[in-house]
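To assess whether ligand presence alters the predicted conformation, the chain was also submitted together with fe (ii) ion. Input:
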Amino acid sequence: MSELHTPQAGDDMARDDDVVALLMRQHGDIRNLFDEVEASTGEERRDAFRRLVRLLAVHETAEEEVVHPFARKGFPGGEQVVKDRLAEEKAAKETLAGLDEMDTDDPKFMPRLLRLRQDVQAHARAEERYEFTHIRRSTDVTGLAAMAKAIKAAEAMAPTRPHPGVESGAKNMALGPVAALMDRTKDTVRKAMGK
Ligand SMILES: [Fe+2]
Ligand SMILES: [Fe+2]
């Protein structure tokens, strides 16, 4: 079915078959989760932050496994574009790791979160402008769909909606180790790509 499908603008099927549309949707989900963390307090903030950390970890890892390797060879200047994006991702991951150890009620949490948000958004804009547009021009529908499949497999590991019944028991809401999640994401993505 899906190989017969012609992508149309605003078409949900097309979005799911197009790695660029999918990653841009995740950029939007990340923005929304930053909003949610900022607008909430206590347990709700903890839960929203946990979902943000998961999505960021899964999103950046999947990009590093799927689209950056393609972009590196896919268009002229791709090598440098990817080098710049990786440097931004490394910086964001370091800030994220620092935040990850902090309680969301800590007075230092919000200023750091806002710094992370600025970095993450500047990075997302740079990806969309310097990398994704070229990816779209340099690959066909089949290529976009193959990469989308791997991104979707990874996405299943990062629920963006709130947990049903955000309960007490802050300890249970503690973040799982981000490094372990990144490793699992790599495995999932590689399997989806048949590696
Ligand atoms: Fe990225
Ligand atoms: Fe991204």
